[in-house]
Amino acid sequence: MRTEKTLLPLKGKTAVVAGMGRSGIAAARLLKREGADVRATDARTAEALIKPLQTLTDLGCETAPGGHPEHLLDGADLLVLSPGVPHTIPFCCRAGEKGVPVIGEMDLAWRFLSAPAIGVTGSNGKTTTVELIAEMLRAAGKSVFAGGNIGTPLSEFILSGQKADWAVVEISSFQLDTAHIVHPRIAVLLNITEDHLDRYPGFDAYAASKARIFRRQTPADLAVINGRDPRCRAAVQGIASRVAAFDRDPETESCGADLAGNRLILRPVVLYPEPSCPADMHPAEAEPVELDLSRSPLAGRHNRENIAAAALAALAAGGTPEGVRSAIDGYTCAPHRIQPAGEVDGVRYFNDSKGTNPDAVSRAVAAMDRPVVLIMGGRGKGNAFDGLAPVLSGRVHTLVAMGETGPEIAAVLGPAVETVVRATDMADAVAKARSHARAGDAVLLSPGCASFDLYASYAARGEDFIRLSVKKGTP
User: How far apart are CA 133 and CA 103, in angstroms?
Assistant: First the structure.
């Protein structure tokens, strides 16, 4: 039943790769392995691309930093985009006009993927869920690749020659925009909240991008969704695969998951294995599994949802209840995701630098069990902040607003808190947060914005916060 994975023969063809980051270089390597001539381009200057340019030159690729010159499309047979390159820029539109197929790096790699895949998307929680699924399957004795949008690009895994029982792949909306043959046997949609509205014409377009994860599924496949999220419910209307919802409707849905405090009751299904599975062979219902989540280090309702989604996916892929329990209890929190950063003078510091949209801020604040001093701000992504006001009210007593969006955040959310202060940079923000925090409080960095006004990445921002927070205390 494997999806047809066709692509023009690459040997002797000319492929253009847009974006010289890790994914773009991996795509260039894969194209060269298959015998293609490769031209690589990036909007960044040559000075900012010294190492990538050297790598691509050593591969024998033609390079064009500092923009996307149209002449690169002359005689091209294929355009491959890195996730960070919008498919709507004039260069991509011109490729379409010239009849040059436009695909993403993940779509290229998928054509060479032999392992069945679990794809995970959503506005928040993707990385945690991918890591949980991978650990649950490994605990059941499965060999697993975990990567995609985070960590190792799928093209790198293909190039490694490694084999896996399952590929657990994080897939962003940007990757789904250029996904034509991506077909996860198990597709997980965690949530859809406003994000990346600087790149999409509106929320509906962003939600439609997320829904593309289901478009190639068959009746033999499984969709795992957030039953409380109406956008997720809408995304699976009319799809071919079976649906399992965490926070299911028990009156109409026989499979899925029920969350009640620290109790998780799973009613899973199990997929029939490839390659013998007919396309119309529906997943079979399995025995219920009840889990106690009280020992899990993952705090907050949102992480309970991530656990439920991961468990449903892992059990469908052949995981075991014992392996699921072991992975939940032994999970180590990923960096920059409500990560404990240390304690100073009775004040606990939490690094949630990966929280780059308002919904992530809401989830992080709700996960705190103490009064909060909240640091927000960065480069805006087109999202509105006013929906955070009722979340902050009564939980956050001081808001520290920094970065390009600092003035907007202070104006919109200031009335919801006791005190609002402006900060020029992270050092200033941490110093002001510390001066307003009292013993028993939490200082939470959850920016709700991208990092690119002050930092190259959310990770660099989070690391700076940790350094500044704990330099007077102990981790």
Answer: 27
